[in-house]
Write a structure and sequence with these properties.
alpha/beta; Rossmann fold; 7-stranded mixed beta sheet; hydrolase; LmbE-like_dom_sf; zinc ion binding; metal-binding
Length: about 300
């Protein structure tokens, strides 16, 4: 059998191709779910690469507590199914585990003994892990890639490692790598609005925060590069969140956002630009509305 060339593979894919690199199942939904659904609906090819099965996650379904790492240690397999269902809700058909299912294990929060597990993603050889991603990059040839910033958005070791692996893979891929790389972000102005909106709520996630600058994340508005409006798809994002039932309980404040503020908070997602040139934008800070803005590629 003659192997198919990379060009033959990409010629069969849509002209616009987006790659996302996330750490655990459910991460793809919370920060980028509306973006993924938006681009799937617009006809782009969306590829999701998740780096671990999330074996160390906190279980919010009491009857499933025995699946946890301290008991049967079967949570990863359960979360794999949740991840597949979430992708289906978003319309994402190309979803993969880095290096194959179970290659890398959830490292747990920073400083815990789980960081030292032999398969912990935090301790993975960077170039070896990046090589798995390079294979996907050269197969798909995405023009745009999304991952986290250097701090993994909020400091989780697997998020930090996902950032490192994604950036190293883009470097190793050379000319085959993405033309633009975005990092997930949240403008300080949006966080401030959220704090005000929840101030009188019984499920206020910001209850212990005096001012927005005290949060472990948040980006000045003038450093944001793109604002993707996926408000037409926030219901899909909510459905994908519900697919991750072990991680996002029914009483989560995230559903409060979905119910009270709808697409305004759930359907709009923000990014900083780490590689490439910013395309045309609008508003006081010139935020792009399309991650492919400025690239010589059009939907077909």
């Amino acid at each position: 059998m003659v192997a198919r060339t990379v060009s033959a593979v990409t010629e069969e894919l849509p002209a616009r191709r987006l790659l996302l690199v996330h750490a655990h199942p459910d991460d793809e939904v919370i920060g980028t779910g509306a973006t993924m659904a938006h681009y799937v609906s617009a006809g782009a090819h969306v590829t999701l690469v998740t780096c671990t099965l999330g074996e160390e996650g906190e279980i919010h379904v009491p009857e499933l507590a025995a699946l946890g790492a301290a008991h049967a240690d079967q949570l990863g397999g359960y979360r794999l199914v949740e991840w597949e269902r979430a992708c289906a809700a978003l319309g994402v058909t190309d979803h993969r585990m880095l290096g194959g299912v179970g290659r890398y294990r959830d490292s747990g929060m920073m400083g815990l003994p789980t960081n030292e597990h032999p398969r912990a993603f935090w301790g993975a050889d960077l170039d070896e892990a990046a090589a798995h991603l390079v294979e996907i990059i050269r197969e798909i040839r995405p023009q745009v890639m999304i991952t986290y910033d250097e701090n993994g958005f909020y400091g989780h070791p697997d998020h930090i490692q996902a950032h490192r692996v994604a950036m190293r893979a883009a470097e190793l891929a050379g000319d085959d790598g993405p033309e633009k790389i975005y990092w997930t972000a949240m403008p300080l102005s949006v966080l401030q609005d959220g704090m005000e909106a929840f101030r009188e709520s019984d499920s206020n996630p910001f209850a212990e925060v005096e001012k927005v600058e005290d949060l472990p994340f948040g980006t000045p508005d003038d450093e944001i590069a793109a604002r993707v409006d996926g408000t037409d798809h926030y219901a899909k994002k909510t459905a994908a969140m519900r697919a991750h039932a072990t991680q996002i309980p029914d009483n989560s404040w995230l559903y409060g956002i979905a119910g009270d503020f709808g697409g305004e908070f759930m359907g709009v997602e923000y990014y900083t630009l780490a590689k490439g040139s910013r395309g045309p934008g609008s508003g006081p800070f010139g935020w792009e509305s399309d991650l492919f803005s400025g690239l010589d590629v059009a939907p077909r």
